[in-house]
Amino acid sequence: MALDFPVTPNPQPASDERIAEIHSKPGFGVNFTDHMATAQWTKADGWRDGKIEPYAPFQIQPGNAVLHYAQTVFEGMKAYRWADGSIWSFRPDENARRLNRSAARLMLPAVDEADFLRAVDEVVALDARWVPDGEGEKSLYIRPFLFADENYLGVRAAQTVKFAVILSPVEPYFENGVKPVKIYVTADSARAGIGGTGYAKCGGNYAASYLATQEAYDADCDQVLFIEPSSKDRLEELGGMNIMIVENGRIVTPALTGTILDGITRKSVLQVAKDMGIETEERRITPDELYSGLESGQIQEAFSCGTAAVITPVESFRTKDAVYEVPQPAGELTLALRERLVDIQYGRAEDAHGWMHRIV
Ligand SMILES: Cc1ncc(COP(=O)(O)O)c(C=O)c1O
Q1: What is the pLDDT of residue 173?
Q2: In which residue ranges of the chain is CATH 3.20.10.10 found?
Q3: pLDDT attached to residue 215
Q4: pLDDT tens, 4-46?
């Protein structure tokens, strides 16, 4: 049965002045809008009780399973305001499908794709004044998520689960936009292992990446790049983004092996590159290929990509022992791909693949 999301309006919505103040310096995931969408699943009755209500704390018992066993998955997507004031999301059906792939891995119930899209569209439309204009690539970050919502410490999948969609005005994750970042490379720890949850967007993968991310910060880097630690023979991804290199004019990115996230930006960049006549390869990239390619100049550019980070150029890769500079950080191909993708998202370039979905 399709879910509806009847609205209980927030009796104390933020003032226009407060929203303008937040839009002037949104940061990332710091401020939340007036409303959220929620629904509740039980094993006996399936999904029920869809609603849009004021953004407010959940009532969580200390024994709630999610606090102990991290049975939770999420999505990350954005609403973009075009110059004519209309509001659009980017490939939301891909997020709906990926949420369900993640849910299946974590033994959480699937959300019907149409219900997912309706929840997102209706809460974004209600909080439309929170969508910043596109200046500085600002947008409204959309965070749909599912979590075990059962007061039970037994180790088994929860029998009651909550779905929610919350919204936060943001600027690109790396504050300086196209300013190249430094990447710390490690094979000492993994965010997810073979047969594990790497392809799922689940909370535990992120908690598992924090130690290595701290090592990156300690080494004066902005993010960590994981090398698969048992074989040490392939690049995986960053803590929260996919990685791409430009090698002899081709875009090369690690193949989807089950241990990395099937990024929607990754997929879109590969398509945009093909559309622009640039060759692409999805395959294993060994650390040696990366380091020797950077030294010889066969690898000219590198960038990370994801919804939060858009496309961020890489300036250097650091290991414990060495620093490998990228010959052309923010090079021609990186910037051309970035511009094309961002122009599609903000309605300034033709949407040849029908990726944009109008919300308002
Ligand atoms: C671990 C990880 N890899 C890659 C990505 C990129 O995925 P997407 O392009 O769908 O945002 C993300 C999310 O942004 C992520 O958290």
Answers
A1: 79
A2: 181-345
A3: 97
A4: 999 999 999 999 999 999 999 999 999 999 999 999 999 999 9
- Contact present, 312 and 181 (Cβ < 8 Å): yes
Cβ count within 10 A of residue 214: 12
**Best mutation site among 265, 305, 310, 345 for ligand 1, i.e. most ligand atoms within 8 A of its Cβ?**
265
State how far the alpha carbon of 244 is from the alpha carbons of 115, 185, 283, in Å.
33, 14, 11
Residue whose CA is at the smallest distance from ligand 1 atom 1: 240
Please give the backbone phi and psi of residue 136, each rounded to the nearest 5 degrees, phi first. Answer: 70, 20
Residue nearest to atom 6 of ligand 1 (CA): 306
- 164 within ligand 1 shell (Cβ under 6 A): no
Provide CATH 3.30.470.10 ranges for the chain.
Answer: 16-170
- Tokens standing for 252? 């090369």
CATH code for 16-170? 3.30.470.10
Class of domain 181-345: alpha beta
